[in-house]
Amino acid sequence: MEDDFGEITLLLQRMNAGEDGASQRLFALLYTELHRQAERCMRAQPPGHTLQATALVNEAFLRVAGNRVTGWENRKHFLCTAARAMRSVLVDHARKKRRRKRGDGAGRVPLDSITLAFEERSTDLVDLDAALQRLEERDARAAQVVTLRFFGGRTMPQIAELLAVSVSTIERDWDISRAWLRRELA
Questions:
Q1: Tell me: the pLDDT tens digits for 85-107?
Q2: Which of 51, 85, 86, 122 fits 63 for a cystine, CB–CB 3.0-4.6 Å?
Q3: DSSP conformation class of 147
Q4: In sequence order, which residues have a C-beta less than 8 Å from that of residue 148 and are 6 or more positions away?
Q5: Distances (CA, A) of 22 to 14, 16, 39, 73, 108
Q6: pTM score, two decimals?
Q7: What CATH architecture does domain 1-108 belong to?
Q8: What single DSSP character describes residue 20?
Q9: Domain 123-186 CATH (choose: 1.20.5.170, 1.20.1380.10, 3.40.1350.10, 1.10.10.10)
Q10: What confidence tens digit (pLDDT) does each residue in 12-21 have?
């Protein structure tokens, strides 16, 4: 496993240098981990969600690997960015679905009672994204914890390792963030 980490870092450096084929090799090495992350993310979506985990991985990877502005430092940096890209893909998908459902500005058309009941209970990804953006302005690390936990499916110890802080700090950030988001989304 440690050998894979070194190879991943090397491939990230090669991507930064613009080497052809480095992103494809990186994708092959990280695909299983990214797919598991996407599956965890998709489990949090409402039933009938049309985006599949494989499509989420592919779209997120294209967004991350195509980003030439940010140089990738290491595997941790890349995976944090991938979680953020998955969030972005899901939010974009939700926005498109909302526009179609509401007729691009037309009045909301109620569906059957089961769908309405579910929609009333579920968190809207677009609203969640807007709240996360506001949280990021107040506390960037707390917003990153939520993104890694909710969209990245990471455990508290994994997040602590990725962000290089203690587990208790991550747990505190998570508790405070959840309370703040509940208030914002209420």
A1: 888 888 888 888 777 665 554 44
A2: 85
A3: I
A4: 80, 83, 154, 158, 159, 162, 163
A5: 6, 9, 25, 15, 46
A6: 0.61
A7: Orthogonal Bundle (1.10)
A8: T
A9: 1.10.10.10
A10: 888 888 788 8
